[in-house]
Amino acid sequence: MRVSQMQQALRDEGLDGWLFFDHHRRDPLAYRVLDFEPPHIPTRRWYYLVPAEGEPVKLVHRIESGMLDALPGERTLYAGWGTQRAGLERMLAGRRRIAMQYSPHCAVPYVAMVDAGTVELVRETGVEVASSANLIQFFEARWDQAKLESHLAAGRKVDAVRRDAFLWIGEQLRAGRVATEWDVGCFLRTRFEAEELITDHGPIVAVNAHASDPHYEPKASGSAAIGSGDVVLIDLWAKLATPASVYYDITWTGYCGDAVPDAVRNIFDTVRGARDAAVRCVIEAVAAGRPLYGFEVDDAARGYIAGRGFGDYFFHRTGHSIGQEVHGSGANMDNLETHDERRVIPWTCFSIEPGIYLPEFGIRSEVNMFVGDSEARVTGEIQESVVRI
Fold it and tell me: Are 235 and 253 within 8 A, CB to CB?
């Protein structure tokens, strides 16, 4: 376990400790940050304190006394609620401010793993509970070289599958065969399996008005058929079927016909401009060594769209953190759903995906950005014009 690194990060944040808590594996972040697997599903509450100075401390139930044996530190046992409270008081004695997987007002839901009652219990010992959001990003959202390579490898495969999907739709149209949104989704999932890619759900294949629902997913029954004159949006995300791999997540839009209508091209050009404005914001800040925060990237994309009169039609954040889950635990590019003040730090990855969703059709353009030590880059292919299907 990275005790010395964690303690340095705690001191940098002005915190006296980091208190981990779990029951029935409700906090997957705790296990990943602490880098351990419990011997079985915890049926009793456990607590683990990493102090800014000194040795870690454990508090575990008597009937699960070995739950944290894989972790360093002194162990205290409890059984009843009174001894649990007393154990917490001793564990936290002399501490002023500690971090937990807590987010004020649930502003960062990916970090808000601790229930309100437990936060109340800890506060009653006299300590201030602070959010671990910055710590989680540092210890969970940062990649290493292996994760970056897995992302790039997944990206090459996903980009190829995406190209083939648009070609396949065109083949069906030219042959006079009916292809539905569901059919295209099946094509994509079959190709994922052949390429040894895995995904948690999806993909999104959406035609015309369905593309104006950012989280639309086709079903086997009721999916729209794809025909001439249709806008087709495909959002697909996957990772390598290997341990600790990370996701690649993109969205492209096509049009079924030889000539893309001006109305469609205008919306695409606006979305592309917003995407590129956000990308520039990241690249320029990282190159200059300037601190960059998630809300600033959202402002760059949202301001571009609002300035062209479509602000009301862009109603989600500009981007999300990417990791072992497609929606990771690092900084989001967000000043709409939340005001994300977390700093964009090196060796993290996130999406840039502005969209405009009109009643008739929606368009989104999504790329992934990786921030290195002194440079930032888009990690895959970039859509520059509407795909003509």
Answer: no
Domain borders along the chain are 3-140, 142-388
DSSP letters, 214-235, are: TT----SSSPPBP-TT-EEEEE
User: Smallest Cα–Cα separation from 279: which of 267, 266, 292?
Assistant: 292
Query: At residue 143, what are phi and psi to the nearest 5 degrees?
Result: -95, 165
- 3-140 matches 142-388 in fold: no
Cα 234 to Cα 88, 217, 219: the distances in Å are 50, 10, 15
In CATH, 3-140 is 3.40.350.10: yes
Angle in degrees, 0-180, between the axes of helices 262-288 and 294-307, rounded to the nearest 10: 150
- In words, the CATH class of domain 142-388 is alpha beta
Backbone angles phi, psi at 100, to 5 degrees: -140, 170
H/E element, 357: strand 355-357
Question: DSSP letters along 263-289, please?
Answer: HHHHHHHHHHHHHHHHHHHHHHHHHHT
Q: What angle do CA 133, 137, 142 make, to 5 degrees?
A: 175
Which helix (H) or strand (E) element contains residue 29?
Answer: helix 28-34
- SS3 category, 301: helix
Residue by residue, pLDDT tens for the chain (389 residues) are 799 999 999 999 999 999 999 999 999 999 999 999 999 999 999 999 999 999 999 999 999 999 999 999 999 999 999 999 999 999 999 999 999 999 999 988 889 999 999 999 999 999 999 999 999 999 999 999 999 999 999 999 999 999 999 999 999 999 999 999 999 999 999 999 999 999 999 999 999 999 999 999 999 999 999 999 999 999 999 999 999 999 999 999 999 999 999 999 999 999 999 999 999 999 999 999 999 999 999 999 999 999 999 999 999 999 999 999 999 999 999 999 999 999 999 999 999 999 999 999 999 999 999 999 999 999 999 999 999 99
- Token pair 């009169």 is at which residue? 309
